[in-house]
Amino acid sequence: MKVLGIETSCDETGIAIYDDQQGLLAEALYSQIALHAEYGGVVPELASRDHVQRIIPLIDDVMKQANCQPEDIDGIAYTSGPGLMGALMVGAAVGRSLAWTWKCPSIGVHHMEGHLLAPMLEENTPEFPFLALLVSGGHTLLVDVTGIGQYTIIGESLDDAVGEAFDKTAKMLGLGYPGGPIISELALTGKTDRYKFPRPMVNRPGLDMSFSGLKTFVLNTWSESDKSEQTKADIAYAFQEAVVDTLAIKCKRALKETSHQRLVIAGGVSANKRLRSRLTELTKTLSLEVFYPKQQFCTDNGAMIAYAGLQRLSAGEQDGDGFFTTPRWPLGDLNKPGLSK
Ligand code: KG4
Ligand code: ZN
Q1: What spacing in Å lies between the alpha carbon of 92 and ligand 2's midpoint?
Q2: How remote is the CA of residue 167 from the centroid of ligand 2, in Å?
Q3: What is the pLDDT of residues 215-240, one digit of tens each?
Q4: CB neighbours (10 Å) of residue 220?
Q5: Which of 269, 279, 296 has most ligand 1 atoms within 8 Å of its beta carbon, as the pocket-test mutant?
Q6: Cβ atoms < 10 Å from Cβ of 29
Q7: Ligand 1 atom nearest residue 163's Cα
């Protein structure tokens, strides 16, 4: 079964074809980073318009790469939420219309389910059950995963998502967008002993997190500083350490509570090298296994949507006559009637 995946929830147009026998056949991605950079963040209307321009050439490109004709495609999966409404509608409208034309089923996929299953695109894949740490620009979730579609959220950020905290910190320091890769690069030259930022909520029981206080800490430290380039790097280092430490403490606690033997880390922030090495260390100490997507599949991409869509389509799910898009869609509501179709 070959599924064409379409991801347009934010600022990346991602297209891919995944085959249940041969794996990933082709993929293409257009990132709008340059388009939004001068505004310091994603401008929703510009994002939608750009998806409109990119989506068809990218689909053509992927079909050629995979040597596929329309009749070779058995299903089409597109991100139906959560995300920017206009951007989602571009992918959903194109996906649903192509499915009509190519006479195959289509399915709307939850963006975070795509991220959660992205490690399945690798050679060494995690078996169920596992604990998933999902860290992106909009979400910070600890999920107890017992199978496809069986997701129980056991911890989450009560305010800013981790990726959002990286982006806001970068903005405060006058760095570019998106903040995550810039902060992590800068942190490499930061002094390790200059600042120590708080690890929010680690002394309270439970698995919830909070990152907005850290932002205030960054702001205060920055405004009282000499504002030098070295200070930027030192703050970047202290900020990243505080985030990584907090996530590691919560993961350790969640692994203990669930008794899961495997930890999966996915979403844009899972590209962070410091986070990856810290969690690899943690799982090694606990004699557990850890799984990540490769760097290019940590951030938004079409392959994860094609994969998640294939799972749903082969379980017999598919769209009705129309399509469904939603800017907000809690992962815990994935299987509620009326929301999954
Ligand atoms: O998953 P993603 O591409 O989009 C969403 O679903 O939100 O995640 C984007 C987020 C951004 O906040 C970005 O700053 C962050 O992931 N990110 C990183 C790194 N690469 C991307 N954060 C920390 N370190 C990185 N290397
Ligand atoms: Zn994402």
Answers
A1: 16
A2: 14
A3: 999 999 999 999 999 999 999 999 99
A4: 10
A5: 269
A6: 18
A7: 12
Which atom of ligand 1 lies closest to the CA of 111?
6
pLDDT of residue 334: 85
d(CA 139, CA 333): 15
For ligand 1, the distance from its centroid to the CA atom of residue 243, given in whole angstroms, is 13
> Distances in Å between the alpha carbon of 29 and those of 8, 271, 296, 303?
10, 17, 10, 10
Tell me the ligand closest to 305's alpha carbon.
2
Which alpha helices (H) appear in the chain, and where do they start and end? 33-37, 44-65, 85-102, 111-117, 162-172, 179-187, 212-223, 229-258, 273-285, 302-314
Q: Coil, strand or helix: which one is 30?
A: strand
Query: Can you give the C-alpha Rg of the chain in angstroms?
Result: 20
Separation CA 257–CA 144 (nearest Å)? 10
For 105-118, write each residue's pLDDT tens digit: 999 999 999 999 99
| DSSP calls for 68-94 | --GGG--EEEEEEESS-HHHHHHHHHH
**Could you count the other beta carbons within 10 Å of the beta carbon of residue 141?**
25
**Closest to 48 (Cα-Cα) out of 64, 34, 32, 71:** 32
pLDDT (average), residues 182-193: 98
- Give the DSSP H or E segment for 301: none
Question: What is the position in ligand 1's atom list of the atom closest to the CA of 139?
Answer: 7
pTM: 0.97
**Strand order from edge to edge, sheet including 150-156:** 150-156, 140-147, 130-135, 262-266, 289-291
| Three-class SS state of 98 | helix
Per-residue pLDDT at 335: 74
